[in-house]
Write a structure and sequence with these properties.
The complex is a heterodimer of chains A (276) and B (223). Chain A is of the alpha/beta class and 276 residues long. Chain A is 44% helix and 19% strand. The chains are: A alpha/beta (276), B alpha+beta (223).
């Protein structure tokens, strides 16, 4: 009996002891090789979250109250843009930051005036499309990629922006075979999400947030292929500031976000050997 | 015999686990500059001496940590004044030893004034929850460096937000961090302390900067 039980005790015990050592080391961080690099921005519109109502005064309760959220945001987007001479048909000609700023400011005022149930579904969908279009017009993937290229070139890297080769959807995972003859590696730049995040405060506050990832495809064998996820959030600002000057604040925060994320990509994915 | 073999196995496993890069570390010799310098006595080479002067290899650092919780500055602090820690880069300095020092305190108004060995340092942690990924260079001895005002914005979550909605391990959620230059404000607050030193050191701005390749984050991200 004892002979039978001894392995039952000792084997798991040894396994437990060894398990502590056997934990696999974290995968190496992706790094670009020294060579010709193609920086390829994604071609699709990232997930946008400018739904201010949902992330409003009481973040928790509002998050739980998804039912009213979409309508509130929709009401917000339309309200400030429905002045004389401004109609839905003109949306494509309005500057993206004006639309997004209007969404935020309107979401705040819509919330304040109790416009929770807001617009019918059809109108809400239209407004959602307008927001997507504004984000698309901004070209966030390209904006960050361009800044990465500028930094790399400044330090003597052979880097080119290749705008039409990136993934067309979040599910598409490309191998970039077409670029293999011209480049040693590809740096794919994808913004996954951009939008406003709620921050606590009285009055409540909002901050612009970016979530992105950069993927290294390496054919030279000198780099490390892989994906690096990055996030950035702007300084939170109270509602009243957004209500009065949303477009200007947004433009400034977007610019700071592009710069910071491009700097992160440059520092983390390009070997920092100084000026080449 | 059986116990001996088990002990041996345990030792082998533990040694295996412990293998890896070994960095020599020691505690940095730092000193707090407080309002009551005459009460601070340390054992020096010539017996007990007062700590009211910079050593020949020392620098003085000062600045302010401003915690902004739910949009409101927490200054003046009560019992919750922030702590922070620093460490030097590995393997540099005269002794080629990395030094570290946890639990550096701040005063009720958020300011801190410390004497440290001249060198480069990383600010590794600030309570309540942040790895700030900041560094500062105070290599020239005999100088008082203003490191800047460190603003840390975070949300204090309610229990249900923490339990059900937040991915954070802590009841606080880190939002934003920035080092700003508010020297004119801080100068007046720390000036009386500096003037308690036998010789007031010249002041220089040496604002903390982000460490290239590192991003400020809350502790959860260390997983």
């Amino acid at each position: 009996m004892i002979v039978f039980f001894k392995p039952l005790v000792s084997v798991p015990m040894c396994a437990m002891l060894l398990a502590g050592c056997a934990a696999p080391p974290p995968p190496p961080e992706p790094v670009l090789p020294d060579g010709r690099i193609a920086v390829v921005p994604a071609r699709y519109t990232p997930e946008a979250n400018f739904n201010v109502y949902a992330r409003g005064k009481s973040e928790a309760s509002s998050e739980l109250a998804k039912e009213g959220a979409a309508a509130g945001a929709a009401a917000g987007a339309v309200a400030p843009l429905q002045g004389p001479g401004v109609g839905v048909l003109l949306y494509p000609f309005i500057a993206p930051f004006t639309i997004l700023g209007g969404t935020i400011a309107g979401g705040i005022s819509g919330q304040a005036s109790g416009a929770v149930r807001g617009l019918p579904d059809e109108e809400a969908a239209k407004v959602s499309a307008v927001i997507d279009q504004a984000i698309h017009q901004l070209g966030v993937h390209v904006q960050i990629s361009r800044r990465v290229v500028e930094r790399a070139r400044h330090f003597g890297w052979q880097v080119e922006l290749v705008q039409d080769a990136g993934p067309g959807s979040s599910k598409e995972k490309l191998n970039y075979a077409d670029l293999r003859t011209q480049y040693d590696a590809v740096l794919e730049v994808v913004v996954d999400k951009v939008g406003m995040a709620a921050r606590k405060g009285d009055p409540p506050r909002l901050a612009l947030e970016f979530q992105m990832h950069a993927r290294v495809v390496d054919w030279s064998g000198k780099g490390v292929a892989g994906v690096k996820a990055l996030e950035w959030a702007a300084r939170p600002r109270p509602y009243d500031k957004w209500a009065s000057a949303s477009a200007e604040l947004l433009a400034a925060d977007f610019d700071e976000g592009y710069e910071t994320l491009a700097q992160y990509v440059w520092e983390m994915l390009f070997p920092q050997t100084g000026t080449k | 015999m059986r116990i001996a073999s088990w002990t041996l196995l345990l030792l082998v496993v533990m040694v295996g686990c412990a293998a890896g890069p070994v960095h020599q570390k020691k505690e940095c010799n730092v000193r707090n500059v407080t309002a009551n310098l005459e009460q601070e006595w340390v054992a020096g080479e010539e017996g007990i001496e007062r700590v009211n002067r910079l050593g020949k290899n020392d620098s003085l650092i000062f600045g302010r940590i401003v915690l902004i919780r739910n949009g409101e500055s927490q200054i003046p602090y009560g019992f919750n004044s922030p702590w922070w820690s620093l460490q030097s880069p590995p393997g540099v300095g005269p002794e080629k030893v990395q030094c570290y020092r946890p639990f550096l305190g701040t005063r009720r108004d958020g300011t801190f004034v410390w004497i440290v060995p001249a060198g480069r340092y990383e600010m590794t942690f600030v309570t309540p929850l942040v790895r700030p990924a900041l560094e500062f260079d105070v290599s020239e001895s005999g100088i008082a460096y203003y490191l800047g005002d460190l603003l840390i914005d975070y949300d204090k979550l309610s229990w249900y937000e923490h339990m059900f909605l937040s991915r954070s391990r802590w009841p606080e959620h880190f939002n934003y961090l920035e080092v700003v230059d508010r020297y004119d404000e801080v100068r007046g607050r720390v000036s009386p302390l500096l003037h308690q030193l036998e010789e007031v050191p010249p002041v220089r701005k040496g604002l903390m900067t982000r460490i290239p390749g590192k991003v400020p984050h809350e502790l959860e991200s260390l997983k």
